[in-house]
Task: structure prediction
Amino acid sequence: MMKLGLLFIVSALLLSASRRPFCASKPADIETALLASQPKMVLANNQVYLGETILLKFITPHPQFLGVIGPDGRFFYVVFPESEDMGKLSPLVDSKIFTQLDQLKIATSYFKADPYTYGVLENQAVFTKTGAYIFMLGDDLLVDDSSAICRVKVMYKHRLRIPAQVVASN
Result:
């Protein structure tokens, strides 16, 4: 039943347009997002390639949970209370520490998170295919009200970036 609820939430988040003015996926929107009065998360770089690092910025204190949805709709818990870990599942950082962080760096080449899949008790690789990855920030990511969740989208290419000078010489 909980998985069905999560599927509904993921669908609602993917379908809802950017009605949340307190999140920003474009660097130009960072100042606007930081001035908003609700929980804040901004994306410093909205397109990354294999081996590059995603930089999420926050206004503190902020909500305690962070999740990500991959291009195939798979949900991963990134940040949650360490007291809730099971088996080899562990958060990138404990929620208590996370709420006070003003930024979080995520390396695409080796980043693993809790896949929130029944019976899976070990973190799994998140960035495995090209597409849009949606980061979600909230006090509860399993809510019916998608406006209670801040989200930003990063476009990921599962290949190395070709240097500009190589492209220009071709």
Confidence is low (pLDDT under 50) at residues 1-22. DSSP finds four helices and eleven strands in the chain. The first helix runs from residue 2 to 15. The CA atoms of residues 14 and 134 lie 8 Å apart.
